[in-house]
Amino acid sequence: MTKKETRTYFPRRGILAAVIVSVAIIDQLTKIIALKTLDGRPAVQVLGDLFELRLVFNPGAAFSFGTNATWVFTTLQLVYILAVMCCSHWLRSPISATAAGLIAGGALGNLIDRLFREPGFYVGHVVDFLSVKGFAVFNIADSAITVGVIILVIWMVFSKEPDLFADQIAAEKKSAQKNQKQLAEGGQQ
């Protein structure tokens, strides 16, 4: 790894890790506050009837989709987080690292609930407490995932960054050409 690669490589991983940890901590802290202040109480109106704080335990995904498949969502979140960590070397910019970090941090925040909240390990219900009129009840982790996906899509559409696999393809092509040249030289002797 060259000096330039070292300089740009580690900050992206650092950004990714910092965002993941920050989102997960903020998510869990806000859930603790919601549990302490909203449990057993009616919804708290914040902006008239437009926005309210309402405690809900969600066994499924967004819009309570898949309420009988909690273990599936737990597995998907775990796989996604591991994939992001394993593939973090493909991140090309601070923006892509931030977006991936928001998504993985949100997944981690909800994964913690699924692993350690009632009704039990790996099938726990996610704590949701933010409610916009006419929309689902959600949490900070859900918001981070949504914002991360939006940033990632915008970045992928408008970025001038090279293709994620361009370096790998170029290296494989160069290696194949070198092998062909060696074979050709070996055959002429």
UniProtKB/TrEMBL annotation:
InterPro entries: Peptidase_A8. GO terms for cellular component: plasma membrane. Pathway: Protein modification; lipoprotein biosynthesis (signal peptide cleavage). PROSITE patterns: SPASE_II. It is found in: Cell membrane. GO terms for biological process: proteolysis. It comes from the Bacteria. NCBIfam families: lspA. This is Lipoprotein signal peptidase. It comes from Corynebacterium amycolatum. The gene is lspA.
